[in-house]
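Hi Y.,

Following your request, here is the sequence exactly as I used it, all 240 residues.
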Amino acid sequence: LFYRFVDAVIQDSKVAKKKGLQLGAPINNNEIIEIGVDFRYFNPDIEFGIGRKKLGLSKEDKMVFSSRGFNDLYNLDIVLRAIPLVVKKVKRAKFVFASNLSGFIEKFGELIHKLGIEEHLLATGQVDHIREMPFYCKDADIIISVPSSDSSPASVYEALACKTPVIISDLSWYEGKLQKDHDMFVVPVRNVEKLADTIIQVLIGSKQVHVNSAYEKIMKNINFEIENRKLENLYKRILK
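Below is the corresponding structure, written out as tokens. Let me know if you'd prefer a different format.
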């Protein structure tokens, strides 16, 4: 309904823009503008170990981090089902979820008990996005974001800005932005075996991505300062 009455439209991806046009969004002044990464906070120079200290993890522990929510869209059940496969090969793997433990257990407690993975799980509690999240991104050996649908995930970009390897699900949003299995690892949607195998290969060091390449692409193309200038220019254009 809103699309019929607007002077401009801002979308965060080609995926969202295409869908908006199908629903009646105007063609003119229809811009893709990201939120963008704030490199003052998410960057590779963050001090290592602060997040691990809060969690009680040592340098020897292998930290797998997920910052996505409880919504079924984000497929955390698939992440949990991958854990028994991972820990068979990587005994010191710890899976850290950015959530309150009580809410996590309420939603997934039965599955966690069935899989017998309690000792491999940690929850951060409520996380301040600026003051705490960067340290978890920096300290992780790998970050996983494997939803069934996505548009332009800021959490993935922020992880890449910290030069942390990321696993994502094979969705169209990254096309033209990042290179599959070069800048980040890509697995089929809701495929436990592929996810577990990729996590294992990363943690044991047999698979690597080009974190410097991913960092440069995020810095040049999904930087909040650049995106803010795009937004400012759009405002100036429609106010003429």
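Strands lie at 9-11, 30-32, 62-66, 93-97, 121-123, 142-145, 166-169, 185-187.

Thanks again,
Q.
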